[in-house]
Write a structure and sequence with these properties.
Helix content is 40%, strand content 18%. The protein has 17 helices and 19 strands. The strands form four sheets. The chain has an eight-stranded mixed sheet with strand order 2-9-10-13-14-15-18-19. Strands 3-1-4-5-6-7-8 form a seven-stranded mixed sheet, sandwiched between helices. A two-stranded antiparallel sheet has the order 11-12. Helix 8 runs parallel beside helix 9 and helix 14 packs antiparallel against helix 15.
Length: 497
């Protein structure tokens, strides 16, 4: 059977294509867990943002797929449905399967006149494999496949939920990177890839889709498998690897053991990027941070969320940002965590959320000022009502959601009411602050990858300052005019098909 797996071209604004283009690890995992006799092609359309229609047409023509699977996040929904429409017009017999966060948490968005035939809810490896086997066997009754929703005539049947995998043993097999049919994955001049060592989180942040999709749990792969996966990514050319775990720092001793194994196996000449909790870094930084640096970790994404207690309360993120001493809470862990990371010559990617319902210009500026001093690479977002999260329900109950255009739910468009502030004012403050932070970070990149910066500085600055003119940069024009031009450019960039 010929199977084409697609991830969407829509990307977060923080990531200009020349700087960061990461693969969708879920698709190669799906490919690795199908029976080996199938012809499987994985295409990350983020690599061809300016050539989506012609690339999709070419792949369909060359692969002649019997099944097309699409991995979709909420802000990618519009693009995904347009791709389905385009292919369906030429190949009406193709079976379309959708999965990922959005179909899992908002299946009702795909059960109308969308062209979708099947929805894989939650983890997809086993569900998708069982579905393909059912196609091969010619089975029409699919009611025994857990985690599947399927179209039966004019109605939809939603099968029972599938339990999350414990990740032990060999039931979830390693990814198939050789199934990729596009190239160009990059992280600051180095070929990039992704691996995962664990899945899940036990915290309950109000804005997070992970808990709603899989519940509060934490499961890990054996470290031998993890090392083999790193070797495989490296064999396929990766010199930079993003560890995509939901919360690897839930088990600090295991994380330290992974760092030691990376060093022992001489895999520490790779640049690693990881997501971490501020509390874990702050509370274990004396031993953990030097070990991370020795293992090759270069960037640490910290879920700072907000430096103000009232906003952390709204986001339900207090507990994961607490610094402890002898079991007692002694304050916010963010500052200490950033100090450990920078002291050990790693970079802080600062995840902050501003524009919460009770925010003021002063509280937003306090967070931006913190970022200017303690964050190397900003990743600043606005509250976003992703399907079924506690935050969304709270915002909806209070009538604070200003837009139901899910294509705007990319984290950098203000779609939630902020007391006493217009949405564009919130966006403007973030946009203005990020320009200087991103520009400053380019000098750090230069020290690590000088030729990459020399070749591409004009493109990086062009992306950061798009919408600006010589007059606005010299202070001869109201910056709000540049901001409006930037918003128009951004809106045009978001139409892929």
């Amino acid at each position: 059977m010929n199977i084409l797996l697609l991830s969407m071209p829509d990307s977060f604004e923080h990531m200009p294509e020349i700087v960061v283009r990461m693969p969708n690890g879920a698709l190669t995992s799906l490919a690795g867990n199908l029976d080996s006799h199938h012809r499987v092609a994985v295409a990350d359309l983020i690599l061809v943002q300016r050539r989506v229609p012609e690339t999709v047409d070419r792949l369909v023509r060359e692969i002649q797929p019997d099944v097309i699977g699409l991995s979709i996040m909420t802000f990618q929904r519009r693009t995904a449905l347009r791709i389905i429409d385009r292919i369906r017009a030429e190949r009406p017999q193709v079976r379309f399967v959708v999965g990922g966060y959005d179909p899992s948490l908002a299946p009702e968005a795909y059960t109308g006149n969308t062209g979708v035939d099947f929805i894989v809810r939650g983890e997809g490896e086993i569900t998708f494999c069982e579905l393909i086997r059912a196609f091969e066997a010619g089975r029409e009754d699919l009611s025994q496949i857990s985690g599947l929703s399927w179209r039966s005539g004019e109605s939809w049947i939603h099968n029972s939920e599938r339990s999350v995998s414990s990740l032990d043993g060999e039931r979830i097999r390693p990814p198939r990177r050789d199934a990729r049919v596009l190239s160009g994955y990059v992280m600051l001049g180095r070929q990039a890839d992704v691996i995962e060592t664990s899945r899940g989180c036990t915290f309950d942040c109000s804005f997070c889709s992970i808990i709603e999709m899989r519940g509060r749990n934490f499961h890990t792969y054996d470290l031998d498998r993890v090392i083999d996966d790193i070797r495989d990514a490296n064999k396929h050319g990766a010199r930079s690897i993003f560890i995509v775990d939901d919360n690897i720092t839930l088990n600090i001793h295991r994380f330290e053991a992974l760092c030691r194994r990376i060093i022992e196996e001489k895999l520490n000449d790779i640049d690693y990027i990881v997501q971490a909790m501020t509390s874990s870094i702050a509370n274990h930084g004396d031993t953990l941070a030097p070990l991370m640096r020795q293992a090759g970790f270069r960037y640490v994404f910290l879920g700072i969320e907000n430096i103000l207690e009232k906003d952390l309360g709204f986001l339900r993120a207090k507990s994961k940002n607490e610094e402890r001493n002898n079991g007692h809470i002694v304050g916010n862990a963010t500052l200490k965590a950033t100090e450990y990371i920078r002291k050990n010559k790693m970079m802080v990617v600062g995840g902050l959320i501003v524009g919460n319902p009770n925010d003021t210009p002063e509280s937003i500026e306090a967070n931006l000022e913190f970022a200017r001093h303690h964050v190397d690479w900003p990743y600043i977002q606005h509250p976003t009502p992703y399907p079924r999260t506690p935050m969304t329900q709270d915002l909806r109950d209070k009538n604070l959601i200003l837009s139901d255009r899910v294509e705007d739910y990319d984290g950098t468009t203000a779609v939630v009411h902020t007391e006493g502030m217009e949405p564009r004012q919130v966006e403007f403050m973030r946009w203005k602050a990020e320009r200087s932070m991103k520009s400053r970070h380019m000098f750090s990149v230069f020290l690590h990858e000088p030729w990459f910066v020399i070749r591409n500085a004009h493109r990086m600055f062009g992306h950061t300052f798009r919408g600006c003119s010589v007059k606005s940069l010299l202070g001869l024009e109201d910056e709000h005019l540049a901001f409006e031009r930037y918003r128009e450019i951004r809106n045009q960039e978001r139409v892929y098909i």
